[in-house]
Design a protein that fits this description.
36% of the residues lie in helices and 26% in strands. With 163 residues, the chain is α+β, with helices and mostly antiparallel strands. The termini are far apart.
Amino acid sequence: MVRFFLVTLLPFLLTQCATLTSGTSQSVLVEVVNAQGASCRGTDNTGRQYVWTDTPFSATVHKGDGPMTLICKKEGFETTTMTFDESLTGATFGNIILGGGIGILVDTMSGAAQEYPSQVRLVMKPLATAPQAMHDEYQKWKKKLETEAETDNNSCPDDEPCE
């Protein structure tokens, strides 16, 4: 029986490293830094929708479904849209070394080979009629998140301002 396990099942299990170690879903925290309490809706490439109510808020999302488009709303602010993408998990690289083809195929199809950033931070632009203090705070946060994005790439979309 032990021999059957070692010969038959163990190689199959080792080739699904990311599926076993990181799963096919994850938690993503969305924080609207200058408009706490904003509500956001995310849609992935398959059309699945996720809701972040009363930000900062965490929601569990399915991995492996491509970029997520996030639309955030709050009274007194312009509706803000941003997109964030997935990256490969560390377990995927282990899979390449240990398991090769079938493990990568399984992990990619299940979504376990990818992951979204665990935290997404964004800033919302106040309406033109908002007090000057809100516009000043917006500019401060926008600059801060743009600076972070240059080194982090998790705060703002590439080649787009943080809005």
